[in-house]
Known about the structure:
Blueprint: H1 12-28, H2 39-58, H3 63-89, H4 95-124
Helix pairs in contact: 1-2, 1-4, 2-3, 3-4
Amino acid sequence: xxxxxxxxxxxxxxxxxxxxxxxxxxxxxxxxxxxxxxxxxxxxxxxxxxxxxxxxxxxxxxxxxxxxxxxxxxxxxxxxxxxxxxxxxxxxxxxxxxxxxxxxxxxxxxxxxxxxxxxxxxxxxx
Length: 126
């Protein structure tokens, strides 16, 4: 973890997932109005769930609780992959936007998995 972590806002995984959330917010603005309570809402919720769970996990006292929240965040990232694919199938996004979204998700997953591994090591060394 190198640098001193004072808040969940200092976590690289949270920062990267925040970039992803902003990307999703930008993309869904162009979705049709009839998707407002469908895919638009689902993608907004999933992208927000990722950062919310990282933040909530960070605030937990025990490593195991933090790990569980991070695993929920990871689940939301996989959910987002599927939603990006649906958005492409419905022609709401381009192939390039799908690739860009998946790259951002994979970067987020890599950092989140690294953080989870760090937490597991920290828990096991207690």
